[in-house]
Amino acid sequence: FRSGSRSSKTFKPKKNIPEGSHQYELLKHAEATLGSGNLRQAVMLPEGEDLNEWIAVNTVDFFNQINMLYGTITEFCTEGSCPVMSAGPRYEYHWADGTNIKKPIKCSAPKYIDYLMTWVQDQLDDETLFPSKIGVPFPKNFMSVAKTILKRLFRVYAHIYHQHFDSVMRLQEEAHLNTSFKHFIFFVQ
Fold it and tell me: Is 94 labelled as part of a ligand binding site?
């Protein structure tokens, strides 16, 4: 973690899926199909699997990927360089979580992403929303929660592409970013 005025919470620890669990097996299936190079195949629900379980596993995986990708460019995404969370002049994002911050607030990109990643981590850790035990049902609003998480994670990709792609290229991470983003887009479609 870098020192300074930046919150050390922006880069979140990886969300682990317990080894030996059904979710772990689904993650391994996803990784195996990703290795085939066919991203469209990688996002397909495996035959006989529960849709909510598949969405949960992939949501956790995308959170981890975006978290890692953003973590590589945090030194370039500062209060000074990114005073507004945006993806260009036409797309400015204001933060609200509906609980602590009910009315959307304008904030810097690093602050927005810190709020976002903390909020997502809290959702993923909530056993009533993302149950980790087999047989525990997903809540009725699960699809809506997952869609909101994915919609907000998309904003981090958009910000990285619009504001920091030159840094991504200097770090020679564009292939990883592009593959991750393409996988994400195929999945949400």
Answer: no
Give the separation between CA 156 and CA 90, rounded to whole angstroms.
15
Residue 92 sits in which domain range? 52-188
* Cβ-based neighbours of 165, under 8 Å, separated by 6 or more: 174
Say whether 29 counts as a known binding-site residue. Answer: no
Q: 112 phi and psi, to 5 degrees?
A: -60, -45
53 and 178 in contact (C-beta within 8 Å)? Answer: no
Residue 132 lies in a domain: yes
The CATH number given to whatever domain includes residue 72 is 1.20.140.30
Q: Give the residues of the chain that fall short of pLDDT 70.
A: 1-37
Q: Say how far apart CA 94 and CA 181 lie, in whole Å.
A: 22
Residue 177 lies in a domain: yes
Residue 82 counted as an annotated binding residue:
yes
Maximum pairwise Cα distance, the chain: 50
Was 77 annotated as part of a binding site?
A: yes
Instruction: Return the bridge partners of 86, or none.
Output: 92
Distance CA 56, CA 129 (A): 9
For 148-180, the pLDDT digits (tens) are 999 999 999 999 999 999 999 999 888 888 888
pLDDT for residue 24: 59
Q: How many domains does the chain have?
A: 1
